[in-house]
Amino acid sequence: MTRITLSKGAAAAVVLVSTLVPTPAATLPDDPRQVERGRQLTLTKSKADVDGDRQPETLILVNAMTGETDPARATEVILGVAGPDQGKAPGSLLWARHVARDTARPAHDGEVEAVDLDGDGASEVVLSWDRSLSDKGVDRWCEIYSLKDPVAPRKVWEGQIERDARREPQAKPEDKLWMRREFDYSATRKEAGKAIVFSTRRTLASDKPGNPPAVELERIEVPLRSY
Description:
- The chain has helices spanning 8-20, 99-103, 185-190; strands at 2-4, 40-48, 57-65, 75-82, 93-98, 108-115, 124-130, 138-146, 154-164, 177-183, 195-204, 214-221.
- By secondary structure, the chain is mainly β.
- The chain is flat.
- Residues 1-25 have low confidence and may be disordered.
């Protein structure tokens, strides 16, 4: 895996500079591999067999600067899926997701992982990003895709996987909480494609310091397999 990364603080500083110094906005290319180096905040490449044919595809994730002066549109998260390499030539782009463009909401600090959630031999793709523009909060959203047909991925679930509003001044007292969902991979595999299981932790801002967060298992029915 190849990774070029900046710390969250450094990335935030770059975004802040882009909001203070107007730069010409440019349309980002559909293929994340073609994003100019100067616009990349992070670049991640990894390989995984997403369609079950035992030939690994390439996942490319770029967190990029758009050149927009509006903070809500200053960054973009781009995920690309490319076919197997042909000798020394990289595989062709099969599918791409531009999160901010496609959702019309802020997107930064994107992450991606490929994991076989249902044990069928093909990896699902888990894409997540932060939608919050506040340095006092976190609002991470997640999408899970089945790519048995990499040209036409099937979204099987989306939802919030982390929320931290404990220091957000505009949040209501009852909303000042921290929540994080993490996959329970063993329990999810036992569901054989019928559900995903999260281990979910929650803490309220009003909880006493040092108290461990409440933990619960969440079972969510999703069609990981298309029967």
